[in-house]
Structure formats: C-alpha cells, structure tokens
Amino acid sequence: MDGDHARLSLRERKKLITRQALIDTAQAMFAERGFEGVTVAEIADAVNVAAKTVFVYFPTKEDLVFHGEDEVLRALVDRIRDRPAGTTPLDAVVDMLGQTMTDSPIGAVTELERLHRTVSGSAGLHARLRLMWERFELAVAAELADETGRPQHAPEPRIAAAQLVTIYRTMASPEVMTYVRAHPKAHRQRAFSDWLAVARHMTGNGIANYARRED
User: Fold this and answer.
1) pTM of the model
2) In terms of CATH, what superfamily is 69-207?
3) Nearest Cα to Cα of residue 203 among 155, 171, 172
C-alpha cells in the first residue's frame, strides 16, 4: 500500500477497494459477454453489493467503461499548463504520449485494446466516446484561451485544441494499436514512437509554434 492509501481512513480504503472491484468485475464481464449483454445488477451481485451501490460509484453503466476519463483529462490539461519554458502545447502532448508508451509499452497497448473491444459492440459507447473527445477539446481550448488571453471559442485556441486532441485520439485508436501490436514486443515502443513522430510532424506544419512559452 502506498503512502497516500496508508493515510486514508478505513472507510475510504474500503470505498476504493469496492470501486476497483466493480471496475475489474465489469471489465471481465464486458470482455466475455459484451457491454450490452451485462446488467448492472449482475455486476453488483458478483461483487456482493446492492445494485444501487454501483450507482453511488458510477452514475451510469457507461461510466464503468470510462472510469479513468477524468484522470486522463486532468493529466492532459496539467501537462499543457505545467510545461516548461521554451515549449509549446504540441510539445507537451507529444511528450506525454511518448512517456506513456515508454513507461509501460505493453500495458498501454493492452489497456487501449480492451477499451476498443468493449466500445466496438455498442452504439451507445461509441456516442459516449465521441462526447469524451469533445469534452477533452473544450477543456484544452479553455486552458489555451486562458494562457493566451483569447476567448475560449476564438479560432486559435479552439483549432489548436482540436489538433492536439486529434493527436491523442489517433494515438489511442485501434489502427495505431494494431500497428504497434504487429511488431515484436521489443520493438513496439519504437513503432509507437515512429507513428507519433509522423503525427507531430504533420500537425506541426500548422501549430508547431503556437503558444510557445517564452524563456
């Protein structure tokens, strides 16, 4: 148990354990029977809690699939906001994606493939995924607008945000994951990095110097 968990009360630790159990159980069930083939009541029963308890942790069934959305969004915006002098938002996003693959190349591929397998069989989840990316764009646009002193829906922050999220979205796509998976394990990090370099180059033709932070 890490230091943060050690400082939590017993009640808080139990809540974290229950939440993770619900996520793990739901993922296993969705993988076996598909998202539409599993009910919230079945997930609750497998974890030995009441169905209403599931909704305390996850307001909708879809939230069990997108449970990490808020954390990823915060990390993305924080990475842009806290980037060092001399760097751009494009630098920050590319570095973040590169670090993700460097830290856990196999785990990153496996987790994204799991997500896409779950989403692929559900029209509702496809719609939710599109909303997630739109939410990311709006949050990044707000951060860029605040930093540059422009209205949030001015052309520059909004277009830059769309481009930045497109890179993130593309690198998390089934096509990229298939490309990476086609390489031997020892070469998957390189394969991902090569694709990311192309994405950076092509996007950078338009926003490479946008919002470069002064030294």
Assistant:
1) 0.82
2) Tetracycline Repressor, domain 2 (1.10.357.10)
3) 171
